Amino acid sequence: MRPLILGFLILLFKFSFGQLYQNGKIVFNDEVVHRIDVSIHPDTLSWLYNSANLYSDVYKKADFEFKDGATGSSVTIKDVGFRLRGNTSRQADKKSFKIQFDEFVNGQELDGLDEINLKGAHNDPTLMREWLSYYLFREHGVQAPRVSFTQVYINGSYYGLYVNVEHIDKRFLGDRFGNNTGNLYKCLWGADLSDIGKVYDNGVYELKTNEDANNRANLETLIDVLNNSTAGTFRADIFSILNVAHVIKYLAIEALVGHWDGYSYNKNNYYLYFNEANQKFEFIPYDPDNTFGIDWIGKDWGKRNIYDWYNTNESRLLASRLLSLAEFHKLYSENISILLNDLFNETHLFPKIESQKQLLRPHLLNDPYYPLDYGFSINDFDDAFVTQVASHAPYGLKPYISERATNAFNQLDQQAVYVNSWSKENLQITQLNQTLICDEELIGIPYQLFNISGQLIADGSLKSPFYLNELNSGIYILSVPSIGLSKKLIVNQ
Fold it and tell me: What is the pTM of this model?
């Protein structure tokens, strides 16, 4: 009897308000490659590229045209703000750019967006790691930026294929959380959430909203809870200030994709938003480009243990204190298991990667900047999906996924993963986390699903895959009348 997966019984926090995406529906269509043309005075462009000005955040006037890769329609916007962006990437030959549509003309926007980030992705021979990382965050219910791809032309010259990453701002917050009036912090290097004395240091926790009020009492509370709550009060205290379930989802994906330059390992590159709707902090991932095996510090991220993935040599109270509690250790383990079953595996990711590879490849053939930083060729692009092509990328994209998934499964604390199994007339159904697995002989047999009050929630025929995506956390009764089966399911979001 061969077991078949029937599907998840949880929604995985795909919030209805987070999936509407009121802004950027055209710009962030990642199934096509768009085109952007920037027209700027040559002297101004030379000034931006001058080594003395590389780290300037001063916007320069330019004209902008966006051509939709799906329809071919174009929109032109005059007098946008144009500058370089990034940190160490400003030293790269393939620069990254930020375009602010309303910098000089109030109210200007593109597809409902105030600004866009065009990243050269010069470290990544596949150009896909950031796109794929953010995809996994979003699919697992973590509110994260969208990503698309675009050709960039400046003054008529092709500057190459770029990764267009959604900006985290008030429009992003409104789309994802239904409100944007809370404090938004961009957390930079040093943001380990351990030192309350750094709360007002804008070089560590840069306040991006409500700057005039500059009231950071909520961040002080979070850091105080992490540092000073006793073992007896920590659970209640952390639940009162932090969306714990979502943070654990974040931590699980961070460990699987190898986002070492985020919170857990490098105390860097994330946003905190104090959500006015639930009065709790939300974690938003940022800049996961050095992922899927890319390494600059001598670590093998494909093998690192999922339970000690954070930097254990420094204070990482958010990770260490959460995972030290049995309840949160179990929830983290269940999230890892769900990801391995549903998203982070060869079956799900390899076809998606291959499709995107075919989409991007023609636009890299004549990219004059793609070879400049590491000597990448189109052959390296092809090879980078299956093998190492650079010293800082010891894994091909696909081998990393295979290696990481295998090691994470072997490291997984199986006793922390919820398993419930029933047999009837030699037919078996197993609940593993929030997934039902059953013998194929059960496919097509009628079932009924009741809530704990006895109300019929769903009925039909068992099939594969079988998704019950709108269940809330709680206890349900699965009934399969033809074999006399009636058993309890526990659904934990």
Answer: 0.84
